[in-house]
Amino acid sequence: MLKDCKNGERFEGILLVNEWKEVPFRQKPGAYLSLQCQDRSGTIQGKMWDYKPQVLIWLKEQDIFHIKGVASEYRGALDLTIETIGMIPKEEVDLAALLPSSPVTAEELENRLRIILAKIVQPELKALLEKFLADPEWGTAFRQAPAAMKIHQAYLRGLWEHSVRVAEIVDGVAEHYPAINRDLVLTGALLHDIGKIGEYSYERGIKVTTEGRLLGHIILGIEIVTGEIAKIPDFPRELRSKLVHIITSHHGKYEWQSPKRPKLMEALVIHYADVMDADLFQFERAKENYPDDEWSPYIQSMERCLYLK
């Protein structure tokens, strides 16, 4: 497993290649291959300095390979110098060994979800969530999809985990602000990222779908939620607008690709809870990955090193 790799040790195993590209050498002709590899224990950046043209054909057609190489430390993180890469017959591929899943069990997430649902009393919102979560397509996808490709909860059941955590955070905030509509804020928290069901595919690694590239999860989320609302007779139009606004504005800032800034208390709370869970996840992951270190390496998405003690 990749998590067991140590500096200077050899590695041999089956890995999923999430991304790859040819990178030109700076001071000589030619190029090397840069590959992001993963199994269920984690990811590693791989470099292949010498490769045959056949490897490029394989990479365009497949994404799971038998790989041999040597792990080495570079700028505080492990890289994998890949020596050989080989095709794997489909019947020998075990996706469970390659795709990471939430460390939180499905049973625990379902129990936590049910606790949240029990707090929602407004009939229309309760009906919306119950119909959505019981739907064979939407409910199953909500419980399986990742929350992201890289930054936070980028694993199976990640969307479920993230949505429940955001709902739990806003539930706590609502205790201190009686003007917040608890039913609306809990519903919005559970559905704010629902468009990620259509934004990502995750059959063989997490990838962005064509719809995800063209529309993004905010617009996809609006389409899903408004489609489900249309099935509920006499759903109040104002309530629909508020819920759609929460999805539309949950990124909070125009520079974060948010079509609107939060203009409801509930939307503002969900925006901050969303950011909080994503950032705290990165602290948690850094502590797990560097248990003996005082500081993490520089984390690009956080734009800083993190203090871990």
UniProtKB/TrEMBL annotation:
Keywords: Hydrolase
Chain ranges of the HD domain: 159-279
Gene Ontology molecular-function annotations: hydrolase activity
Residue ranges of the TM segments: none
PROSITE patterns: HD
Entry's Gene Ontology BP terms: rRNA 3'-end processing
NCBIfam families, A to Z: HDIG
PANTHER family linked: 3'-5' EXORIBONUCLEASE YHAM (PTHR37294)
Name under which the protein is recorded: HD domain-containing protein
Organism: Candidatus Desulfosporosinus infrequens
